[in-house]
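Fold these two proteins, one after the other.
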Amino acid sequence: MEEKYFIDGPLVSILIPCYNHEKYLSDCFKSLLAQTYINIEVLITDDCSKDGSVKIIEEWMDRLRARFVKVQFIKNDNNLGVVKSVNNMINLSRGGYIKTLASDDMLFPEAIRALVSFLENEVEFGLVYSNYVLCDENEKYKVENLEKKSAQRSSTLSGSLSQALYEQDFIIAPTVLVRKKVYSEVGLHDETLLMEDWEFWIRASFSFKIGYLDYTTAAYRVVSNSMSRFSNDASGMKRLRLMIENEFKILDKFKDNPIIRSKIGIRRCCDQGISLAIDFEEDELVSYIKGYLKRNQGRLGFKMELKYILYKLRIWRLIKLLR
């Protein structure tokens, strides 16, 4: 693909939902101000933070407004949750491209320019994802430090990705840029879900190709209270159960879609001696399930663990017996 960069290209709307992120906001905003792409509007929503987030956002408003085409700060009267806050910002946005950025994540300086360049050149793609680096809760925005980190590639798949995405969520949200028309055609994020990004990727993939850009665009921050990290205490178990139940909802939602292929047949047994119905070529999935059981044995109870395995293997007939 021939490179073509846009300085005064299409308007990009960057949406930043915030809740209790006073520690990270300044680094997020610094990464925005460092963008080499010019035509950007920024929408920020504070979802009734209980810390000093609002004050920090207000302190940054003059600098952000001096740099970008438009900056809008929305303070929710009630805690709406991140998904509804993002959907509200999508409806308010004016850009032809949409980028959602968590207020604890950061962008590399060329991020928007590279992502826009990809979609401007590859018109058949509805959205693009890219590489990222991982950082912890103490990481500060310093480009030279972020560039020293190893680039993470969750996948390099590109094209019609419905089946691949149904099997695994490999797209990292802060690396993504979406055409606004994708939301117009397939709808906004599902506000009943915690894993709304994954559900949206699958839904979008039925109507649009999804592109992969081999370029590092974002620093993805992993913090101690992240929903994706689970401890052995009661709160950790609650988060784990919520995530699994949300995964069940997503798998149920799309299991009868004709684009999604069913997987049936008997292959082998797992560590606990449960017969699993799977295809012959599913060795990688078997390894995943066995690893999951080893890590989580006894944490959720036998029924939940068995149900999770059956969902992973898409064995709908047996799942019904557990309900």
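Now the second one:
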Amino acid sequence: MAANATGRERVPRMNRFVSTIVSMSDTDSEPAVASAELDPLSSSRYAIPIDFAHPGDSRAVVLGLLAPEPSRILELGCSTGLMTQVMAERGHRVTAVEIDPVAASLAAPFAHEMFVGDLDSVEADGQHLLSELEAEGFDTVVAADVLEHLRDPTACLRRVLGFLKADGRVILSIPNVAHGDVRMSLLAGRFNYQDRGLLDRTHVQLFTLESLLAMIREVGLAPVEWKKVVVPLGGSEIEIDENLLEFGRRILAGDPEVETYQWIVTCQDPKAVDFEPAWPELRSTELTVSNVLGMMNSPSPHPGVQEAVVPADVVGATQASRFGRRIHRLLAWSRDQLVVRLVR
């Protein structure tokens, strides 16, 4: 049996959930990369080098949360193995899972074990892709930007917890669909999927802070530590009209999660480990309504909303003025609706 890059044996896993078996013998990576380039939905499109110097690279943040001493790690959704390689080089023993056989073939040399298949698939008898793994065998489960790609991430997370040691940790990296840029795009009537990012076209589940907390509670975990990747309003890959962006900055002011691009949360079982859970406080609906009403009753520094006269020789002036009038009418209607609801 061939040894991997870290000197450990590579163990092939073959069961009924494996859609394609990745050969654990030395693999020529060139054909795999060429195949990945033909498929825009391949996991290989995420093979962007990890930037450890950039605070916005969530993978670097996740890797920084791992224990410094060698440990056993279950990595869900390893893609081409960029994180797998770093963990292996640091002495960790990584069992990796990947649905894309092309990406898995590239990650396999760095993994102690590689499972290729669908984390969502469960047979009638309860058997699933990882059923043969050792119970309570892992120190850490890493799910970095993978749960949003599953049909039932809660069920998947509940299943893998059976392979976690009692004092083990789960590290989740989850994108925030309620980032201000997504909200402003929706206000303009747009929700355009892209190859990567917040509106990745392969995202099946979309998370807000509230729904993320609900999932963590439902599986019996509690947050130990939170980290964020922050992207200012208008700074994401989603294009936002400047007129709308100004409106967004005002109506969303004070929302602590409006610029959160991703959450990286470390969780443990509160019944097995004694710690003070770090449950964040959710923003109340009353506070949101109060801020919106206050914003609508205050003067706007934006000419479009104030209905100021824009010189006709300014390129796009007519379009900007019309857009401003639409926002003004929207504000008036929204204020009336909110007042009616508050009175009720």
